[in-house]
Amino acid sequence: MRDLLSRRAAVLLGLIGLVLLLAVAAGTPAQAQLDPSRTVPPEALAGGSVPGNTLGSSSDADFWRAVRTGDQGYVSIPNKQAGVLVQSYGESWREFRNALLKVYGAWALLGMVGLLALFFLLRGRVRIQAGRSGRRIVRFDGLDRFAHWVTASSFVILALTGMNVLWGRYLLLPLIGPDVFSAITIAGKYAHNFVAFPFMIGLALMLVLWVGHNIPNRYDLGWLLRGGGLFSKHSHPHAKKFNAGQKILFWIVILGGISISLSGIALMFPFETHLWGKTLGFAADLGLDVPTDITPMMEMQLNSIWHAVVAVALIAVILGHIYIGTIGMEGAFEAMGSGRVDENWAKEHHDLWVAELRDRAGERPVRRRPQPAE
Fold it and tell me: How far is 77 from 83, CA to CA, in rounded Å?
């Protein structure tokens, strides 16, 4: 009798355990998804709609198209830019900077060096035609030279460190290795940021000191038509203290320097300025067909591109200035070296300025006799 009761109790307990196992299995349907061959697509479970109706009536294509074009979504954190999942203009920025700018910028600088070398081979050094007189004239005082050298030396540092950012990984990195290149680049980054301020100070000084001498006058057109006398050994067009070529250089440096300074400040203090948005908005008010919906990220991308493009253009122009001021023209470096130039050099390149100096000193103006052509 006891054995019968024991067998019945065991069977009962077994049945209870089986029911419990089936109940657990029924309560965990996800276990059935472990077999990939039996996976049911979510669309089938939702009757063709996205599960949870998260997209409402939109399709997947519409949703991802909006994401791809940079639509602003909602985020609860302070950084609202995080609501943009895909910033498509970043691809255009990267393609321009890493392809077009690096290639064409390098060709622009190499082309300028090639042109200067060719000009030197064909023309040679521009000599003082009458020879040195031994008498010297004060051309630039100490403040003038200070403004020039502060601007020039800071520009050289900015140019070298900037070119390292653009081309250093292709030129320097393979030569000096990653450790040294990393140290140089980090030091260059800080130098670039801090040396920018002396550059802006020098720029302001040059504008104040020389703007009066760089207003165009009636002699500038004649100077340009005769190529400044650079292509003929006996042709020296009239010029005052600054000739037409120097005036063009002055305004390129001033306007380009102001522009590159503004974009540089915007890059040093990211997302704090809205220069492009305001500029393009003003252009749109004038009737130009330009985009006006400029996001903070697009501001930074445009600042980066503009900063680099203007920098490459200024470097190319300054290469020509360095050439003329050193090996290209005899006596030119002395103007910013000691501040005094030979009287014959001054008469040949800035005769009207020499006449003005003699008028002030009560001397008879110097008049150059016409010289026969070669």
Answer: 9
Q: Which of 277, 257, 310, 304 is nearest to 96 (CA)?
A: 304
Quick one: pLDDT band at residue 55, thresholds 50, 70, 90?
low
Q: What does the alpha-carbon distance between residue 167 and residue 172 come to, in Å, rounded to a whole number?
A: 8
CATH number of 91-140+215-360: 1.20.950
CA distance 353 to 341: 13
User: Which residue is it, tokens 């653009």?
Assistant: 166
At 182, which helix (H) or strand (E)?
helix 173-210
For residue 257, pLDDT over 70 is answered with yes
Q: Which residue has the tokens 């060709």?
A: 107
Q: What is the C-alpha separation between 169 and 123, in angstroms, rounded?
A: 37
For residue 342, the cross-strand partners are 136
Q: What integer is the mean pLDDT of 24-29?
A: 39
Q: DSSP letter for 137, please.
A: E
Q: Half-sphere exposure (CA, 13 Å, Cβ side) for 29? A: 3
Query: Which whole number is the average pLDDT over 285-293?
Result: 87
Q: Are 202 and 157 in contact (CB under 8 A)?
A: no
Assess contact for 267 and 300: CB atoms under 8 A.
yes
The whole-model pTM stands at 0.77
List the domain boundaries for the chain: 91-140+215-360
